[in-house]
Write a structure and sequence with these properties.
3-stranded antiparallel beta sheet; Tetrahydropterin Synthase, Chain A; 8 strands; alpha+beta; rod-shaped
Length: about 250
């Protein structure tokens, strides 16, 4: 083997040894003699071999971190246990390597801290707490090149006595709403009845027709006893006739 072939083989080996492949969801953070040189990928890229350049492959897909269960006492003196789930992704692979060591563990510890700090209004304002949780750690992860997509409470465990109290409160709210709806319906019905009675009072014929219709409806029922209400005009006429007959009898006597 000639010296030229040896040199060629060495050069070929060096070229091949410097090849790296980054998947579509990966980026290569390249350091040259310890200094950051830039990002490579996705796909095939080459670095200077012989430890002159080094590539750190970073996964930039969204990851999840489950914060372990925390126990605390809220402002209302209620002991609760809860855990949460954090979704995050690396948006700057260079910062995630240079600015923080073990980014995933750092995010996890930060999530635990944020969960402990914001727990006062968990029972009434869950959506607000989720927003506050995200905001509480987003400011710290941005310098690391990490974006927090969501940070939400997963499970909230309440004492049994508190669950019973909340169930009673919910039942009271439902009963209150039912009573309000019933009262509004009765008010509307009374207003319509008052309007109908006022209209019929000015039209005796309409009142009499309504009375006849009611008698027909009652008579249609089987095994029913029908009580006829005598109109006030008939009652007045009967009273007048009775008084007239009484006076005639007294005159003859």
């Amino acid at each position: 083997m000639t010296p030229l072939m040896v040199v060629g083989a060495v050069v070929l080996i060096l070229l091949v040894s410097g090849l790296r492949i980054a998947q579509e969801y990966e980026r290569g953070v390249v350091f040259r003699l310890g200094r950051f040189r830039g990002l490579r990928g996705p796909g095939l890229f080459w670095i200077v071999p012989l430890a002159i350049e080094r590539a750190v492959i970073i996964d930039i897909r969204t990851r999840t971190v489950s914060a372990e269960q925390q126990e605390t006492i809220t402002r209302d003196s209620v002991t609760i246990k809860l855990n949460a789930v954090l979704w995050y992704r690396i948006v700057d692979a260079g910062k995630s390597v240079i600015a923080v060591s073990e980014a995933q563990n750092a995010v996890y510890q930060l999530a635990l801290t944020g969960l402990r700090n914001i727990l006062d209004e968990v029972l009434q304002e869950r959506d607000k707490i989720n927003v506050l949780l995200k905001e509480s750690i987003s400011g710290s992860t941005t310098p690391w090149g990490i974006e927090v997509e969501r940070f939400e409470m997963k499970d909230v465990e309440l004492p049994e006595a508190m669950q019973q109290v909340m169930a009673m409160q919910a039942e009271a709210i439902r009963e209150k709403r039912a009573r309000i709806i019933k009262a509004e319906a009765e008010l509307e019905a009374s207003e319509k009845l008052a309007a109908a009675s006022a209209k019929m009072a000015g039209n005796p014929a309409a009142l009499e027709l309504r009375r006849m219709q009611m008698i027909a409806e009652v008579g249609a029922e089987n095994n029913s006893t029908t009580v006829l209400m005598i109109p006030s005009e008939f009652a007045t006429l009967s009273k007048t006739l009775s008084e007239y007959l009484r006076e005639r009898l007294s005159d003859k006597a």
